[in-house]
Amino acid sequence: MRNLLSMEHLTNDEIMLILERAAGFEAGEISNLPRSYNVANLFFEPSTRTKTSFEMAERKIGCTVIPFDAGFSSALKGETMYDTVKTLEMIGMDAVVIRAKEDEYYNELLEGINVAVINAGDGAGQHPSQSLLDLYTIYKEFGSFEGLNVTIVGDISHSRVAKSNATSLKKLGVNVRFLCPPEWAGNFEAHHSWDELLEDSDVVMLLRIQHERHVINKSFSKESYHEQYGLTFEREARMKEGAIIMHPAPVNRDVEIVSELVECERSRIFDQVRNGVFVRMAILETILKER
To answer: What Gene Ontology terms for biological process does this UniProt record contain (predicted)?
Structure first.
């Protein structure tokens, strides 16, 4: 692994190596990187969890984090992504972590760029580090993936989380089902009712409604969405014993999920955030060791 761009590029063995290294970090192991590396985080879209999680992970493994403020960068003057990253390479970066609104922005960086590129989210495309922390959360809970039923609920067509997890979970032997309004299914075959999904789901993974990626139909209402697709008290009570609730966040409380369920016994929503630091430490260490 010299870059992390898409879950489609990772083998099952590579996935499991990252999860095992994350477990080591959670158990208190320290990084075995041979030196300090310079890393910059280029976030051209807003982020709380992913950006700060990467920064924490970078510091924990001994990297020097070089500040980069997209709102004051030359990208506002029309500089291309390639030129921005090439400039940072010449300054001395070893790796860049990038989030951008364009799908597959990284394609223009595949030739001519010699720093490591870690995709922290590309438009409605992929979000590999989120997928890996979701996998780690599930693996910690169940100890394996084969035969699990995972139901992903929400704005499937615009969700890079849904696409990344669909790819990785299926490769690992998970039965993945989608639940969403018909107009949000995109290229995925989806259910439009909780019937036949709720009672046998090992994981219910809720997704944020992504208002910034599409124009919501005027007939859309948060109340009607919650009534038909949200995780209510009644639906949570029907979940099987041992089943868990996940959400990549930020959460629209009382839309995707009843507010009081965000921190209920089944919920792993804030555990996902904590797990993300260990997983991103493992990602960074794995990639930087190849530099």
So the answer is: 'de novo' pyrimidine nucleobase biosynthetic process; 'de novo' UMP biosynthetic process; amino acid metabolic process
